[in-house]
Each structure stands twice: as structure tokens, then as C-alpha cells.
Amino acid sequence: xxxxxxxxxxxxxxxxMSLGRVQELAGINKGHLSRVENGxxxxxxxxxxxxxxxxxxxxxxxxxxxxxxxx
Length: 71
What we know:
By secondary structure, this protein is mainly α. It contains four helices and no strands. It has helices spanning 5-14, 19-26, 30-37, 45-55. The protein is globular, with a radius of gyration of 11 Å.
């Protein structure tokens, strides 16, 4: 999965969370998360799923992945 920087920042702001709060909830260093949100760093699939859980969105909302339709 490839993180989508703009979508990750938008999801965090929509939840009214600071980088520090996300660090507490997801265990991602706030400096690293800042670099992710600015498009300078990536995230492992594990942390993409953790962020999605913290933000209450599907992981496809914060990645470049296309949601798969169920047959």
C-alpha cells in the first residue's frame, strides 16, 4: 500500500487531532508522520492500518489503493 499524503493529513484534521495525539494513539513518531503528510516518507502496511483505525476510515481512504468491489 502506498500512503496518500494529502488524504492522511485531511483525515487527521477532520478528526481534529494533533500529530502528538496521533503519536499516542497509533504509535507513529510525530516527526515521521509529518514527513509522511508532506510526501517525504512512507509507512508500512501495519501503520497504514493503525492510522485508518485511529481516524475511523477504511485504509483505502488514506492510500492510493482502489477499493475492491465485492462480487
